[in-house]
Design brief:
The complex is a heterodimer of chains A (219) and B (276). Chain A has 219 residues and is mainly alpha-helical. Chain A has 10 helices and no strands. Chain B has helices at residues 2-21, 50-62, 76-81, 96-99, 138-152, 164-170, 185-194, 204-214, 243-258, 261-270, and strands at 26-31, 40-41, 47-48, 65-70, 87-88, 103-109, 113-118, 131-133, 156-160, 178-182, 199-203, 218-226, 234-238. Chain B has a 6-stranded mixed β-sheet, sandwiched between helices. Chain B has a 5-stranded mixed β-sheet with strand order 4-1-5-13-6. Chain B is an alpha/beta fold and 276 residues long. Classes of the chains: A mainly alpha (219), B alpha/beta (276).
Amino acid sequence: MIESLPRLLNATMLTIELTLLSLFFGIFVGIFFAVLRTSKNKIFYYISYYYSYILRGTPLLVQIFIIYFGLGQVEWIRESFLWIVLKEPYSCAILAFTLNTGAYSSEIFRSAFETINKGVLEAAEGLGLNKINTFFKIKLPIAIKQSLPAYGNEMILMLKGTSLASTVTLLDLTGVAKHIISTTFKPVEVFIVAGSIYLLMTFIIHNFIRFLEKKYNYN
Amino acid sequence: MKNIFKLFLSSMAALAILVSSAQAGSVKIGTEGAYPPWNAKDESGKLIGFEVELANWLCIYMEADCTIVEQDWDGMIPGLIMRKYDAIMAGMSITDERMKTINFSQGYADEVASLAVMKGSDLEGMDTPEGINLSLGGSDVKAALKTLTAALAGKTIGVQTATIHQNFLESGDVGSVKVRTYKTQDEVNLDLAAGRIDAALAAAVAFTDYAEKSGKDVVLVGPTFSGGAFGNGVGVGIRKDDTALLSDFNKAINKARKNGKISELAIKWFGFDASM
């Protein structure tokens, strides 16, 4: 058990990497689709609506399998430039996680945008701020603050979701744990250690969000 | 195929009658159901394959009431230890590493491992001898491994996780190849066909079976492997404290070997006599 710890900690780095990269790209995807969703253009609205509907309505495992094993079977994809990204399990995993967390984040940001008090926007208009300034200086900061608790939750879900990377050959924390079990035949001990590492990371995210909530609580 | 299925059904029915009249204990046998032709599933999800049929015959000889249950490969030995089933028949080779944790019956079948690539790969036509028995050692084996090391340098090779094939690639015998591990052999085959891996290593029949069923241009290359990290044949995995069951299985295997049942089933499923 103790001998397995260095290997598990090493694999934790990949888990952290997958989580952070997916969340980073996912924020942009989320904000982008949240903005589309609040658009008055019906086409933009429905693109965003169905994106979120489909990605939230199917299991992450199915999504990652479609992207990795599914698209890999299509010959013209293998011959196109897309194969540069889709050939590697690492980029397939990041892509799947980003699209997934992007869908959830877009809903979180959308509801945050919708809660912005009309009076605030009218005041911005009264001050003569243009649309871009209103978005970046008024709407976005308020929306980010509003969405912190829900987004913290999404970060934790994403962290746990990265365990599915092991299904496409990546040796993340769960992947290495399984690997160790397959040679030591001690599932309980190894999974308890791996689970504790996940718990520790969740604890850190949880407190980080609480710190941010306190910092930006100007009510 | 339909005839085989009918035969299988009738043998199952015969088994059911025999079992109900026999006064013996019940034995649960775990198999993967995803490593054809050793063990697999038909379209309806029913377990089929060489080991599934052999298990039924061994149970008849042991006069035991058997059920065959499915278990993912990577949890096969833990499942046995946790008593989810009493025996493993899942194309599991008898290796020293596994013997530390569980017991094995005598081997009932053996066949070689081989590398596979897609047609047109630069590994096709690799210059290596026919067969390497790692247990023999000596200069021939060393020379063959040296050739392989050179040919595989920098290549990515796919294997099913927790197999003799993974152990061999990670043993350092063929230098430092990039090993990619998969949960099932199906997934290894898919990524080989997709070109994500340069080559794959598994039981040779696993590739020929896939090539036949999928119509993909999978070709076997390089030497075939046996011995050493590849173990000493495939046997029934049994818990260390289950000595009575171990001797029952050994007796049943002896009987099945002598009356030709193992050979018969091997020829039916593998196309050649893989019995031992």
